[in-house]
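Let us begin with a simple case.
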Amino acid sequence: MVSAGISASPTAVVFDDPPIAIKNVLDLTEEGFLTDEVLTEVLPKRYTFISVENYGRSAWTHTAKVTTKRSDGSEKPFFLKISYGNHGGVMLQGEYESAREVVRLMPDLIPQPRAFGQFKVESPVTYYYLSDFIEMDTTTVPDPTELARQVAELHKTSRSPTGKFGFHVTTCDGRMPHTVDWEDSWPKFFCKLLLGVSKLDTEANGPWPEMERATKQVLDFVVPRLLGDLKQDGKPIKPSLLHGDLWEPNLGVDKKTGRLIMYDVGSYYAHNEMDLGHWRNEFCSHLRSKVYLEQYLRQYPAAEPREEFDDRNRLYCLKGNLNWSAGHPNSVLRRTAYNHMCYLCEKYAPLDGIDKYDPGKDPTVTGASIVVDVGPRRPGTV
């Protein structure tokens, strides 16, 4: 079920200003969780609704465990996520459509998506996303070999339905929208993606002339140089389906089966190495260890020229840096992104009027990290 109020076109998204925060809506409700008769309508017919209860914590969505009963009397739980306003609808539609793409290829990799749509309640305008519920251990360090195998399989087996880079609806990293209009050219697509998140960062943190010059230099010269002629096994790279927000809080282990589970997908078709850019950032902990990259590259070798893999990884991590900076104003990751840009400009397109690259501000060199308090997360929380 898809609401008619949310466009399927990535270019047509107009967000609320500002987005409606969950805490502001909960202040208006007496019970603490807003539910709706639509919920019973979208459940599979063989299940009878019993109850819904808060489950997990999130800044931009409200999450719950829905308990239902099968015809034989046994209980079946589902996971419910709701959000408010047009922004919330775009976020949840993006996750729903992403999840559908992933499970089509790898049915056991993420919780099965069940429904997306709009509640009937008129105020506040409320959207929902329903999926299977999986009881997970989210404290276990991801196994490098298993994570590499699963991610590489998703990347290798996926095929863009258009043969292009992009996605058919807007998807988000957290609450920040991706610019994912279809493009034949990977460098052109990446430039639009990076420019989009750069604008969000400027809106959140204000102008920074030196960074704006560095960003333009990266887009105009570094991107064509590093991404303009990539090959895989001698052929042009193909668009691969990404997770889109691949870091530790979006990984868990199914307590019943022991299988690796991913969630909170914000997918699009891109160069497979884009998913690895997140692992370079300060907000990652275990995934920053070289063993994860090493294991992945054994499953899916770096594109040619392989000797430029690390520079591409630095370029790709800018999206995660700036996305985090836009969502967390005054974060150190803005400075990190600028320093990465200075490195890339010095090496590939020198420019006056920006700073010199400083290894002392590079977490790849220093090992610096930030402490991320995501609270008691559950599958599907943001």
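The second case is a distinct protein. As before, the sequence precedes its structure tokens.
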Amino acid sequence: MTPGHETYMQRCLQLARLGAGSVAPNPMVGAVLVHGHRIIGEGYHRRYGGPHAEVNCVNAVAEADRHLIPESTLYVSLEPCAHFGKTPPCADLIVRESIPRVVVGCRDPFPSVNGKGIDKLHAAGIEVISGVLESECRELNRFFFTAHTRHRPWITLKWAQSADGFIAGANGRPVAISGALTARYVHHLRATHSAILVGTNTAFFDNPQLNTRLWPGPDPLRIVLDRQLRLPASLHLFNGEQPTLVLNELRTEQHHNLEYVRLEAMTGPNLIKRLGSMLYSRGVHSLLVEGGAQVLQHFIDAGFWDEQLIITAPGMRLQKGIPAPKPSGGALEGSDHFAGDRVDRYRNPANPY
């Protein structure tokens, strides 16, 4: 059976995922160059500031096959860029290499591109087919799309709860609810999100590190809500080992890897919306909210979330403690299982990207 456009676009998506955790705030992109149903070049965007997928794809073509480039079709999961950023426009490369046909997964919502790359290819007489596996291509870069269409990060809410619905013991006492395999999954989430947020109580009682020590990948920007700056300096959050924002109502100042940002009236939905705008202005395209219950509930009540990941330990019952947040308005997308723990994945249908 002869491979179709979808087959080669699936390969683009496979390649693009290899850039997860390394290219933000840029999108993940994969590219494949095909001649006569034979792939002669592949590439993906490997790291932020580095060559784009199209460049790596063309450079991967063997010297013996380079004469085939003007007779080949380029498949790329996202519209080729048409502007000078950290690298030259990929649309210019395609024109320069005389590639006659380009198959695009989806358009790029970034204002400097958004159709301009496709227009440039059309103007050069290049055939362009777009919208192949479009929903899959958009889903892959949901962080990027949300940032540039809603001007805020993609917001993932995550918590672990006992079978009877508690996230901590009495008086906020930390309890290890999920297992070791689930902990690695959580660190994978951290590695693929640009920032991670906790509230004052979680910072004080749990003393989290909020890093990716259990998974290979970059540590996220740590964010802690501490309205009156009551948290002790001895906490892991203030160790200076990774960039950390302290949102408060008292002062703005910066030390090595530690920045205090003053926000007035840090309560209610207005705080959450201001937080989204502030993070977007800093190039943060994804935010993982890990707690505690009150902070999570604020996001839920405001409808200011895109994904909820609820980890449940079916064999654990605490009988009393701090109740888990009350989910609202989510559509169950699916469930995963990690050595006894269940992770239910919800999407917010009110926030399309």
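The longest strand covers residues 154-162. Residues 164 and 302 are 25 Å apart (CA to CA).
Keep these points in mind for the review questions at the end of the chapter.
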